[in-house]
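Job type: complex structure
Entries:
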Amino acid sequence: MIEYDVIQTRGFHNVVRNGEVIGFQFCVRLKQYRGYWLSMIRTEDVFVDGVAYPKDSIVWTIEGTDYTPAQMLGIGNVQWPSSRPATLTVRKPGGLAQGYHDVRFAVRCIHTYLPPRISSDAAFAATPPQYEEKRLLMV
Amino acid sequence: MEGKRTGPKRGVSIFSYWELLDISMDLEDCFKEMQDMGATGIEILANGHVDNYPYPSQDWVDEWFRLCGKYGVTPVEYGHWVDCYLFKGRDLTPQEAYEQLAVDIRLAHRLGFTVMRTKQSVIDDTLTPVTYWSEIIKRALPLAEECNVRMCPEIHGPTRLTDRMVSDFVDFIEKEDTKWFGLNVDFGVFEEMRPSPGRPVFPGYAGPSKPEDILPLMKYVYCCHEKFRHMDEDFAEATIPHQEVIGLLMDKGWDGYLLSEYEGKDKHRYEVVSDQLRRHHIMMKNTLGY
């Protein structure tokens, strides 16, 4: 089961590596009627409790494989399926405190069937992305 | 199965369920819905509905055929895209685009489909395909023949059936003398477009096609998206002349599937989508007589 909202309730955790909390993770789904090749996905900065986390510092895990946004731009033969959420890992030493956090997330895809006036890198540069917002509860 | 019936037949594009699928419905639920309303043909969107697209496991493929058999559903149309804007800063070459298309042709064949809705990348507001579309298709004709699938661009509003784009497709078919490339007519081309929030505005749109505009194209049409936005409680829609167009297809002996495609409101609400599709199938059933 996945949740209707783009930002998923399930999967919101701090990340521990070698005994240290190095950051946090949350899951998002692609709210589209098709999956997209990784090279057609345009990521954006993430905001948590008003703090910006630059897009290029975020690691995306799709179908079990980790990618940086720069790596995704070069991969034209792997899809992010619309049925499988991606996990975003955000570096933040110490992680997030227990309790509620306001998460803002946006992503865009190059829709090749729409006029480039609406969907292209040039169009995206001229229009800010629409952010999804959700209050997530850290256990 | 009713696959042998000639004439227009009733099917469903499970695009209609996209806001429900994987959330409150699974693929088998779509088949159960189709059986419930008497639909015998299915359209999938490969990138959205095939697990591990474009290389599903054999187990998934076996399950696909089990569902088709159990619910009496024929694989009709395989929806896919030729994504020429795959990489930032450059367009695919015709050969690269062909290689992407070839993967889909083989998968469509593996899943038992005989028609593909081949969506090419567009260059402008009237949805003109990339300038080299015919080079891509020409390269793919031998493989399409080998795999027994017909590649069909979807003629979709705001494009009109009388537009240059459509006559270019027909000229290509005639010049190549091929039956492996044809047309999918989306009934939205007959829609009297009314401005509404959230719908893109297409400058210079000249109004809908007339039902009879489909007549000279009929022999090239292998599939139709029977697009609708709202069927009323009398099983009709004021903005699309569904019964008139279906009547023309019946009169002329057109043989193919009318795939219900719900593009109305509240697609995330099962009670709305399921009711709308059933109303639409009542309209088609009463028009077709079966």
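Summary: The longest helix of chain B spans residues 270-288. Chain B has a mean pLDDT of 95.
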